[in-house]
User: What shape does this take?
Amino acid sequence: MDIHFIPGNLNSSNSILVGNVLIDPGIEEDRSIVEALKRLGYEKRDIERIILTHAHYDHSSAARLFDCPTYAFGADATALKKGDDDYTLSKFFGDSLRIENIRTLKDDQLFNGLKIISTPGHTDGSICLHYEDYLISGDTVFAYGIGRYDLPGGSLENLTLSLKKLSQLNFEVLLPGHGPIGNKDSVMDALRQIDAFY
Ligand SMILES: [Zn+2]
Assistant: This one.
């Protein structure tokens, strides 16, 4: 499957396209994802599934632009189903977000060739996705540093355990939810950082 890293526009998260599966479409208002997909030769209707690494508005709200099924994990799927605007940070973005028909992923599941890995810490239902040499990491870990753990459902203790789990995986390229592309060292550096500062 082809894999494309689509850098986020304005406040939107980065998006990743693997085959016809779109991960983290970003912010609806920015509409940049639709344009970016067109530049790659994809129309909206070509997207067969959307996976959200977590429920936060800057990753998830553009899911409403698409007609295909949307998937998330654990507490984050529940928050989107219920329209919990505190958990999803929709309030902070001055909006409300509810995806009533969201579908739920399972930990360790192989989904359209992507391995789903439960990585609580940034939020309780955060996931990473492992595909060949790539790790799609959402806001769990960036090229340089870790995601926030002080938001609803966040925990530094869980984040540390999740990073240890990721450090056991074989991958070379880190595709994070914000900022530039990283690599396996990004995870090892993040663990050293936590050791040194907390
Ligand atoms: Zn987030």
